[in-house]
Amino acid sequence: MWMALWAGMWGLIAGSALLVGAAVGYFADVRQRWIAAVMSFGSGVLISALSFDLMDEAYQRGGYAATAVGFIAGAAAYTAANWYLNRRGAKHRKRSGTQQMSEAEQPGSGLAIAVGALLDGIPESIVIGTTMIGGGAVSAVAVAAIFLSNIPEGLSSSAGMKKSGRSKLYVFGIWAAIALISGIAALAGYAVFSHFSNEVIAATTAVAAGAILAMIADTMMPEAFEHAHDLAGLVTVFGFLCAFVLTKLQK
Questions:
Q1: What is the pTM of this model?
Q2: How far apart are CA 235 and CA 44, in angstroms?
Q3: pLDDT averaged over the chain?
Q4: Which listed residue, 53, 73, 82, 142, has the most CB atoms within 10 A of its CB?
């Protein structure tokens, strides 16, 4: 029980970065080019973490088949859900400009954006819990990568929400709720999957990794490239390197 609560705490800490980013994006006048650069950095961090930490752990725990099937399934499930939400008005939920639709332009888009933000955060949180199964210690790389990537996600999305006319209560209500749900998802990731076989745990970790990679390609990189295309690749590489160093320091 204590380990599950510990996992939940780490999930809550990682999720709280969304609120930090949201506060900066909503109250500070940050240029879109800088927002895009931070988004590039966060993308690189996540790509490195899922490559050298999550996928490697899934492979070591459950082998190639469970890892490959889970990875593809995670990407496919995320893509299908994202496609549906995009048609309901959540397509530009991570964009910092004026692309986000207001409720007047598309009724129900507010709910779609909220669900979409939740969809983006749950796989990351569950994997925090699953990395604690067996060894009992949380993956510092996973937590750090999710925390660092959540800041630009919250920053960019809240800036776009403000420009689309959404209220302060709506913006911070969403991110506070998702931070709390992140903690619950991490707790569930440990409490539920610790009773399953290594193959199931490996597949679950790979599902999260596949969903995260699909999310990066669908929602983070478009914002990064549009406003920082000259430097997007370089900044992404810096983010990748930072997470790679963290991976090696942990071992």
A1: 0.82
A2: 8
A3: 82
A4: 142
